[in-house]
Amino acid sequence: MKFSLNPGRTNIDFLRYRVVALVFTAVLTIGIIALVVFRGLNFGIDFTGGVLVEVETSGPADLSAMRAALGDGAFGDVSLQNFGSENAVLIRLSQDDTAGDAQGRLVEEVRRTLAERVDPQIQIQRAEFVGPKVGGELIEGAVIAFVVAIAAMMVYVWFRFEWQFGVGAVLALFHDVIMTIGMYAITGYEFNLTSVAAVLTIIGYSLNDTVVIFDRVRENLRKYRDMTVPELLNRAVNDTLARTIMTGLTTLIALFALFFVAGEALSGFTFAMIAGVFIGTYSTIFIAVPVLVYLNLQRRQRGRVGGEDDADAAGAADA
Amino acid sequence: MLHFAKWKTVLIIAICLIGALFTAPNLIGRQTLDSLPDWLPKQRISLGLDLRGGSHLLLEVDMSAVLRERLNAVSDDVRARLREAGIGYAGIGVDGDAVVVRVRDAADASRIADEMRGMNAGLDVEAADGVVRGRFTAAEIANRRDQTLAQSIEVVRRRVDELGTREATIQRQGDERIIVQLPGVENPAEIKALLGTTAKMSFRLLDPTTSASEVLSGGRLPPGSEILDGTGPGGQPTKYVVQRRVLVSGERLTDSQPSFQNNEPVVSFRFDSVGGRRFGEATQQNVGRNLAIVLDEKVISAPVIREPILGGSGVISGTFTVQEASNLAVLLRAGALPAPLTVIEERTVGPDLGADAIARGEIASVLAFVLVVLFMAAYYKRLGVFADVALFANLVLLLGALSALQATLTLPGIAGIVLTLGMAVDANVLIYERIREELGNGRSPISAVEAGFKGAMTTIIDSNLTTLIAAMLLFQFGAGPVKGFAVTLSIGILTTLFTSVFVTRLLVASWLKRARPKTLAF
Known about the structure:
Membrane topology (chain A): Multi-pass membrane protein
Oligomer: heterodimer
Function (chain A): Part of the Sec protein translocase complex. Interacts with the SecYEG preprotein conducting channel. SecDF uses the proton motive force (PMF) to complete protein translocation after the ATP-dependent function of SecA.
Distance between the termini of chain A: 47 Å
Transmembrane segments (chain A): 20-41, 138-159, 166-187, 193-214, 241-263, 269-295
Structural class of chain B: alpha+beta
Protein name (chain A): Protein-export membrane protein SecF
Number of strands of chain A: 4
Strand content of chain B: 15-25%
Distance between the termini of chain B: 20 Å
Subunit structure (chain A): Forms a complex with SecD. Part of the essential Sec protein translocation apparatus which comprises SecA, SecYEG and auxiliary proteins SecDF-YajC and YidC.
């Protein structure tokens, strides 16, 4: 078997469209933010608090009968949906201000009500209950994890490279976070603790990608003394393109295996990760790298920076 | 780079073998495992409750109740102390988080404050505007909190043990929480009910001078008595007027067992020597009166004392079901909680769903592994096979590390493993693409390989370290599923760094040494 995904020695002018790409990204980002703000996310009980029960019925589940049985007010707001198979139903009861232990008892009441009125053989597969206080703390923990992770990665890039790279990486990271959360808003997948893990992993993947290209940029800065900055950056993206494609493909292969086989419980997570591979690759090539053009990137050695004015060397951290 | 010192080769192979040794217990049946010699590692990957089925409960201790109770006790002590010292006051009470003494004579304020300081109750005392306030110091509050939590954990452990739940883990979390993990428990309702009961028991006397109905219809409640709910002889709810004074408290119980009396379920109990003596004296002096058996401010039963009970043991009869009697016996044996506990988070997964999740996770992992292996081999030929061997070593080391560290594998953790499989080849891809580039520049195979490994090294370290930073922060700040995911991701990155750099390099080097290829085909 012989095949090649390797584009060979490419010379694609990615940077030529940098203005278009940045404007497009900005518009898209604003659109996504608006969507998230106005439409909101489908927050899971990890964050909202409430009760979640997954039941398995003996035959195909009769959702309307179950809704009728649970809908007489005793359980507050009830939402039902099929989960994975016809026989599996996910029931969510919204949080009200009853005390914690009363909420905990609801699970048993749901089971009893359904067994009495809908299906005597109903079985509880999974029951979760998160008190309102815990939900608030989980949000807090997630936000802290986000902020600290982004800060730490930025500091790392700043130390290993020059500050311009740090700015490029962080802008790309913000893009990744917003786009991924946007994916949740568009698809309506539940946003829960696992989603936070997904978003942070996407950030990790994307930054991984960015660092690989930045490393090449740094190398090329030393190697090609006479190139203009856009030329240099193009060279770096093209040099690493084969790697970008290969790693993206193997990661996608693994993720698709997970998406189609691992079941409903992880589908939201894997879907976000799959989207994240594309989001992360895009942000590296069309945000992190082009931003460097505008940040007056300096050379390590003294010399002519093609087309750029070298007079202002004050900002260059010669690490 | 062609040269690999012998000790390095041995070390790399040894590490892989150790990984295999630690992974092995997961593949061998339990019985075979038990029959193996003791020096072999026998720990398996410990599965999270979402995979094996079971119940995770997060309990919160009502610390404000503890502090309130403590404040009340301190205010009683202050009253007694001032009376003893002959210092007059206008009133003593608890106001918010302070014991407050209203001073009658302004000249007494500093004496009162001194008395309160002298009690060593951990109070911060200040006097102003005719009022002396005593607040608990931060140290006292922290101390009390630790004590309460430790005591609660102890009682929870005893109660869970009494129910025969095996392998339960009970841990402190933060300042006022306890995590209880119960593998295999599908319906935690019974355990929740048991844990939610404080089980403060006391033996007191009914007030003979009046009745609850009299008081409720406007009669005077005798000082030192209170009205409590309870169950009457027929099982219907009744109210009782009960004296506050405790004859014997539940702490004096040494044993309690469910049993039968006249075909009715009852709970028999036994006091320690002090409790037995006190109970004997109390019953001797009060023959003919009603003894109120009070549990958590509810009267379970109020039998008439027919004769002194001197043997240090007795029987509580109420209108119990068999289950209730056995639960009460458990609660009394395990002792009272120092403060009420509330379940604030619960996650229960049925064993079927858990088994299903494992099966699907395994299939997904195997599928992902096979696909990535085929893809790499088809694409990079011989070098791809080397990368595949490294990937396999990676998986073995990852599973071995999870077993050895006894890190808990959760469903998101499996996702972490699969993701690692996909991303693990990144380092090899970086190296191989570099080699390809160097070949394109016209280098000989050996020098291209050398330059490839060297050139890719900083990139590999930089890119993996950034992901590792993210993974460790996820572990630090994440809860539940996020933590489980972060554990496998972090370990995965470390094993990936090792295998893709050392193992592939060893394989490639020894092949080059042996074959000395003139060209290198990709």
